[in-house]
TrEMBL record:
GO molecular function: oxidoreductase activity
Stretches that traverse the bilayer: none
Record's protein name: Alcohol dehydrogenase
Gene3D superfamilies per record: Medium-chain alcohol dehydrogenases, catalytic domain, NAD(P)-binding Rossmann-like Domain
Taxonomic lineage of the native organism: Bacteria, Bacillati, Actinomycetota, Actinomycetes, Frankiales
Alphabetized InterPro entries for the sequence: ADH-like_C, ADH_N_2, ER, GroES-like_sf, NAD(P)-bd_dom_sf, Zn-ADH-like_protein
Signal peptide (residue range): none
Annotated ranges, domain Enoyl reductase (ER): 15-330
SMART domains, A to Z: PKS_ER
Organism this protein belongs to: Frankia canadensis
Top-level taxon: Bacteria
Length: 332
């Protein structure tokens, strides 16, 4: 009998997830049912926001909670092993889907997205550029404007600085948690300046210094004090796109399922600032544009590759701890 390995939750994490909260188990390779393809995964995305699903999820969220005994899931790229006749899928073809954290998956045909050769590296389909691109387009960014990306070294932020520059931003500022990552933001990822969380100076003071003329666009992946600081520095008519809530999701004393923040509404009113949640439902040609930029050398796809599913739980802990820059993937 052929076997497949997958990562399961053993018990709800007490605080931030640790490798001991998970186990790698061997199970029979799944037998696809009607309308399903058997896919052998090659890569899957390790994302910090999965902590919210481990904590019980949030009402209205598109993904269900993960309970003890459940296999984790997330974006993945795999090779079709077998597919029903007439499905349009061919053995050996690469597809993207959402049943990661396992070596083999039985995936409904309508949830398999053939990748083709639009991107020079198939793993680049897992970077969060599409989210960053959607947020910047939704913001109405125009040439010469100043952009602040809260969480500039993460999966979304490592792409947002570069994309903002390509879409015409005049100045791009990012925040991060270490001097080494701050240096990489400026050297590699399109940022003009970096705000250091937990530095000697407050986030408010650093942001005011980095953007003396104020902020026009904010891509907020974090919430908390960084969102408050962005509101304080925002120019009249600024647009804030709320993408994530990492400040709450990565707080060791919570479950990651609530993200309270206290904002002074007077600046919002007096400066006509707009806050909007991200609408990531329309791709708007992102993949083709991304491929063109990659092949022309105008953008990079920061990928941290962890070899082997047995190291996936360690990779998650490292991602939550902020060890890496860019998108973290497990390669099998």
């Amino acid at each position: 009998m052929s076997l497949s390995r997958e990562v399961r939750l053993v018990h709800p994490p007490a605080g931030l997830p640790r490798p001991s909260d998970f186990e790698v188990v061997e199970v029979p390779v799944p037998v696809p049912g009607a309308g399903e393809a058997l896919v052998r995964n090659r890569y899957f995305h390790v994302f910090a926001a999965i902590r919210t699903l481990l904590g019980g999820s949030v009402e209205g969220a598109p993904f269900p909670p993960i309970h003890p005994g459940d296999t984790l899931f997330g974006a993945a790229i795999g090779e079709v092993v077998a597919a029903p006749a007439g499905s349009g899928l061919r053995p050996g073809e690469l597809v993207s889907h959402w049943l990661g954290w396992r070596e083999y998956a039985a995936v409904p045909i309508d949830r398999c997205q053939p990748l083709g050769d639009v991107l020079p590296d198939p793993a680049a389909h897992l970077v969060s550029g599409r989210t960053a691109y959607a947020a910047l387009r939704q913001s109405g960014l125009t040439d010469g404007e100043t952009v602040f990306v809260a969480g500039g070294a993460g999966a979304v932020g490592s792409m947002a600085g570069q994309i903002a520059r390509l879409l015409g931003a005049g100045r791009v500022i990012g925040s991060t948690g270490s001097p080494a990552k701050a240096e990489r933001l400026v050297r590699e990822l399109g940022y003009d300046a970096a705000v250091l969380r937990g530095g000697v100076a407050t986030v408010d003071d650093q942001l005011a210094e980095a953007a003396p003329d104020g902020l026009d666009v904010v891509i907020d992946n974090v919430g908390g004090e960084q969102l408050r600081a962005a509101v304080a520095v925002a120019r009249p008519g600024a647009r804030i796109i709320l993408v994530g809530s990492l400040a709450a999701q990565l707080a060791p004393d919570g479950a990651g399922v609530a993200s309270p923040v206290e904002l002074d509404t007077f600046p919002l009113i007096l400066k006509h600032i707009t806050l909007r949640g991200l609408d990531n439902t329309v791709e708007d040609g992102w993949t083709e544009r991304f491929g063109t930029w990659l092949r022309a050398g105008r953008i990079t796809a920061p990928l941290v590759r962890i070899a082997g599913i047995e190291h996936a739980a360690d990779a998650l802990s490292e991602t939550i701890a902020g060890k890496h820059v860019g998108t973290v993937i497990v390669e099998m």
